[in-house]
Amino acid sequence: MNNIFEKFTTELEEEYQTRQNIKTITQQIDSVERKLTLYIQNYHQQQPQSQDKPNYQQLLKELEPIKEHFGQLKTLIKPIHYYKYRDHWKQHLSQIVFCLTFSNWIDNKTLLKIDEIQTLLNLDKPGAGQLSIELEDYLLGLCNLSNEMSRYCVNCVIRQDYDTPLKISLFVSDLFSGFRLLNLKNDIIRKRYDSMKYDLKRIEEVVYDISVRNLHNNTSTSNNNNTSTTNTENKMVE
Amino acid sequence: MKRNERNFNNDRYNNNNNEKKVKLEFEKSDNEIINLFQNYSKILDEDNDRRERIVKVSRDITIASKRLISLLHRVVFEDRNTILTQAHQDLVKVNALIGNIIKELEGQEYWKFQKSFTWGLQEYTEAISFLYFIETGQLVPVDYIHDKIKESNNIDSLSTFSLSVDDYHLGLCDLVGELMRYCTNSVTKQKYQDCFDCCEFVRTIFTACKQIRQFRPNDSKMSMIDDSVKKIEKICFSIRIRTSEFPDKQLKITADPDMEV
User: Fold this and answer.
1) Residue B96 and residue B125 in one domain
2) How confident is the model at residue A160, as a pLDDT?
3) ∠ at Cα B56 (B53, B61), nearest 5°?
4) From CA A113, how far away is CA A123, in angstroms rounded?
5) Under a CB-based contact definition with an 8 Å cutoff, are residues B126 and B69 in contact?
6) Fold for domain A53-228?
7) Which among A200-209, B25-34, B203-212 has the top mean pLDDT?
8) Residues B151, B179: one domain?
9) Which molecular-function annotations from GO does this UniProt entry contain (chain B) (predicted)?
10) Is B223 found in the same domain as B122?
11) Residue B248 has pLDDT above 80, yes or no
12) CB pairs under 8 A between A and B
């Protein structure tokens, strides 16, 4: 009887040790994730004429170390146990998904698919015995995305960019109709999805404000104005 | 349900508004996202359905295990062999239920669904370890449980399935409560030796749990075990004291109000 317990205790002890090791790695993942989140903030503050615009390529460089961290996790944990310990890093995954999709949309105006993100992170496709981004992480990331978009939309207007909010509105409403296709249970995604309509509402209000003043039709001219001023500024600097 | 419906209507209302706006202001809408989500929806549904099925089976396992346990409690009062034969027949049925879970888990992540059937497995561990204790007076090894499951389902391997250390451990914690009842029942039938055996056994589990606690804090279960162990020890203590007073007489200890548990 004592034998059984001894075996059992060593097993638990090993598991405890593994968890400790995982925690050290997830701390590193956490710090990369924070950097990414910080980088995303730049999008809100950028000035139209500023030189070092935040961009997707730069973000990908910031992401680089994370591949190694996930590699470490892969070597540390037996594939069958990936799911057991997933709680340690899953919240970081959805935040990373958010940062990537946000930055990518602003630069390329497309939605990063889950497979593309897997590739970016050097992870495998979801399936038995794979460490990967689960659909849940991805969808939560997209909920964050719609939330951040509602803020970005406002900030676009502040810097007299009247074109982007319209695109955002289209994009988020597409995203929202996408979510509506899912049969969600009463879980975390459902909660986040329920709050998505308020993001959408906020964005639509911005679009309304722009439309009612017919600002978006003047964007091309205002853009021209902007470029001409920057040109003159540049000239002056020269 | 009502709340859900309302949400749904809200969503639809919002959606109509969107579509109008979108049609008015933009020429083309991105259907790629919709296609993507249709695909995601399928994946989510599949997982949710599987989880739902597993939860149902797990509930059945819990019920069947509880019945098995109450059957085993009668072993003190009724004919031991009949009860044990019946118990083994019932165990085969529970094992068949576990077989359903094994089938559901084929090619799936064990830990993804583990939370959905952990309760059932804990109750099952409790039942099978109780049965094993009554038969042998020993602690049931995990391999024995695995073999029993294989045997009842006529399969050679459990594929991704196994009884996790956690479920096993938590099941044993619950077993202590059952043993306390078993011990008090035995006392009423004057099966004193059974009480001492039981006490010895429970103390070992108790010590082991204390040892495990440094890796797995589980205070709520611990205090429960603590109470049960103390009760059993008190019973054994009383048996010793009373029997020493009247060594040649059979005692009716249950008449003592202190002994009521």
Assistant:
1) yes
2) 87
3) 125
4) 14
5) yes
6) Methane Monooxygenase Hydroxylase; Chain G, domain 1 (1.20.58)
7) A200-209
8) no
9) sequence-specific DNA binding
10) no
11) no
12) 122
Give me the residue from A9, A178, A200 closest to B33, CB to CB: A178
pLDDT mean over B59-77:
95
Chain-chain contact of B18 with A176 (C-beta, under 8 angstroms): yes
Q: Is position B118 within any domain?
A: yes
CA–CA separation, A167 vs A169, rounded Å? 5
The torsion region of residue B177 among left (phi > 0), alpha (psi -120 to 50) and beta comes to alpha
Q: Rounded to the nearest 5 degrees, what angle is found at the Cα of B237, between the Cα atoms of A4 and B222?
A: 45
What percentage of chain B reaches a pLDDT higher than 90? Answer: 52
* Residue ending a domain, choose from B155, B190, B216: B155
User: Which chain B residues are within 8 Å of A9, Cβ to Cβ?
Assistant: 208, 211-212, 215
Tell which of A2, A3, A4 to mutate to test the B interface (max B CBs under 10 Å): A4
What's the total number of domains in chain B?
A: 2
Residues 107-136 on A with a CB inside 8 Å of B are 111, 113, 128-129, 135
Does B141 share its domain with B191?
A: no
Give the whole-angstrom CA distance, residue B214 versus residue B199: 24
